[in-house]
# Entry
Amino acid sequence: MTFNKTYLIFLMSILLVFCCSKENESNSTDKESNTINEVVQTDDSDNSTTSSSESSNESNNSAGAGIYLGTKCNEISYSTIPKPDYIEGDYSYYTYGWQLDGSDQNSCVNAYNGVNAEGISLVEAVLSDAKEKLGQILPVNTWIFHTQMTELDNICSDYSAFTDDSSCFELRPTAAATVTQYVLHNGGNFLLSEGFWGDPEQNGAGYKVAYHEYFHIHQNSHKFYFDATENFGINMTQFRKVDQNEDVNLVGPIWLEEGGAEFAGVWYSSLKGWVDYKQYWTDYLDEARSVIADAASRGDIVSLKDYETRYSIEKVESSENSTGTPREFAYAYSAGGLAHIYLIKKGLSSLNNLMIEYYKGVAELERKNVGEGYKYAFEKYFGMPLDAFYTEFDDFMLKSRAEQLSILELN
Ligand SMILES: [Zn+2]
# Structure
């Protein structure tokens, strides 16, 4: 470790968008004792609540159910799931009102007591830059709060309308983003507490974190979106199946989802002068090397493939690890991000393919290859079959530090 870390690994507040178990992740990879707590949107489902929602939607005769209300900051666009335009196979297809009136470009900063002007401007700067660099296909509401000064009732009375079960979150250190199949009709949400927008000591890290969260919205909005028909499609059957079988999420392996978000966060923030790209990735390289060396001391061989699902990650990063000893955190982020740099520097992929085309293509490839869209998208946009990449990247991670820095052009 090359920098002072007082890592606190929190299992995070649950961002309950629809009463499902959500992935609780902690990113321990940040600098300057910055604790990142993430709740990343996953494709979990809960049969009881899902079916009750679906049936209530179908049988809901109350006025205005499923009707587009218009899109304004801090207000829902639909009070219930709208009726699909059509259903084909396992997919329900939607064209949302905000696609038609242009409010899919809305980026809202909903700030609550305790949030200062600097915090708001940080988030606004990221939302604006990210929309320009990555695009935006649904309205985004950001919920910016202070863990001590914001009144829970105040923020929750607004936020809970964006969930399907009127749930909320706790006022804890949080950086979290979500787009789910249950409330897709109301766009994407992300949460940020003062540790990320209000700490001048962080020296730009807050921008990076906000960018990382925006990227999750980017990834998880495109996984539903079909470019050719310009509509959204939801395969609820497959979402349930993925969860039940502990399979890889539609958007791809967790290391790709998190590593991609971290790569994007650092890369685009560095272009704005908010963070130091080389410093970040050199530190991440050391961190990833430490995960490997520490595990190797117990005969535990680390592969990027171990970081495909939240289940597999929980296994290797806990005492469920076959050696009985958890691995150091958080290889999905550090190595996942480094994998992106590797793909570019080896000429296998490009920034545009890694950041945009993969996500634009994955929904269509998933529809053609249910459960395996990410594998096809990987090979198409990242330049080689995923399994072959695991072998190559695992080998790369065992090279000398000097050689790695040279390949990644971080020296
Ligand atoms: Zn994340």
Remarks:
- Residues 38, 40, 212, 216, 258, 261 surround zinc ion (CB under 6 Å).
- The chain has two domains: 23-244, 271-407.
- The chain has a mean pLDDT of 87.
- Residues 56 and 110 are 30 Å apart (CA to CA).
